[in-house]
Amino acid sequence: MDEKYMSKLSPTVDFWAGIYLVIVAVLSVFGNGVVLVRAVGRFALLKSPELLTVNLALTDIGMALSMYPLSIYSCFNHAWIGGDRSCLYYGLMGMIFSITSIMTLAVMGMIRFMVAGSPPKTGVKFQRRTIGFVISGIWLYSGLWAVLPLMGWGSYGPEPFGISCSIDWTGYEMSLNHSTFIIAMSVLCTFVPCLVILFTYFGIAWKLHRAYQSIQSNDLQCRSVEKKITLMALMISSGFFVAWTPYVVVSYWSMFHSREKGHMSPVISMLPCFFAKSSTVYNPFIYFIFQRTSWQELLRLQRLMFCCFHRGNLPAEGRKLGEQMVKVSDSTNFENKTAETCLG
Question: What average pLDDT does the segment 37-56 reach?
């Protein structure tokens, strides 16, 4: 077997790494499988943006099913299984699913930012067909970047610890071909989507803050809505960054120090890579926590923000009539919980 595919870790570390991956794989398949089964069961009731959640579950379970078994077998074998062909396959799958995940999160952030604060009846809306086209575009975009190394721009190769494969980061200093691919891929598939995620979720938080300042109410129900929706957005985005940032940092470190012998120990290079795989586990649990009320509260929040924004612009009689109409509407849909209190 080629030396580059031999594990640089001790057999004990390989064994426990394999056990860890088994746990991650089982939790990922179970959690995302439940999300997909429930989505299929209520497919006709799914709102358009929820299709992005389903797409994210597909990427997570796809990664767990197509990649983790090979990693687990290689850990217990103390060497990479399959040589160049399986390494190429593993790197290809990793590129497709990881880019699809980050682009899906970026689109989710943009849609939530555009929808937040718009009136529920006449505001920004997205049809299923539109979201379907967007999801198709995400997969095509990811597939294009994944295929480019097969066409000669960039390449896939083993990780420094030997039992995983990814982009050949160490080729950055060796050729213009590798360096240009890594720079372009990093900017268009990592940095830009990450900036979109950060700015959109900060924008959502700012919109919520401004909206509830204008309400001028100390009602706990209103504060609960703001806290829950903001917390969900924060958990989704921050979870992704927590899982992937160590791997990105280590990858770039190895990229700029590839010619230095022993620049990084195998264990240090392995830990961020395996930690990043946990990103396929936590999303289902976040969605389970917020699934019951998140979309209902988003609609309620839109009603509140719209009504409170226009309240000061209405004459006294019109405002009174508007309040009564909103109360009647919200009592039908949301059992008079929040709108009556905030419209007062």
Answer: 82
Query: Which residues are within 8 A (CB) of 322 and not within 5 positions of it... i.e. 6 or more apart?
Result: 307, 310, 311, 314
**Choice between 92 and 168, residue whose per-residue pLDDT is larger:** 92
Asked whether 163 and 267 are in contact (CB, 8 A), the reply is no
Between residues 149 and 342, which one has the greater pLDDT?
149
Write out the residue range of the structural domain in which residue 79 sits: 3-311
Which SS3 state, helix, strand or coil, does residue 264 take? coil
Scored b (16 or more CB within 10 A) or e, 191-215 reads eebbebbeebbebbbebbeebbeeb
How many domains is the chain built from? 1
Cβ neighbours for 292, distance < 8 A, ≥ 6 positions apart: none
Output the pTM of the full model: 0.77
Looking at residue 204, its pLDDT comes to 77
Is residue 334, in this structure, part of any structural domain at all?
A: no
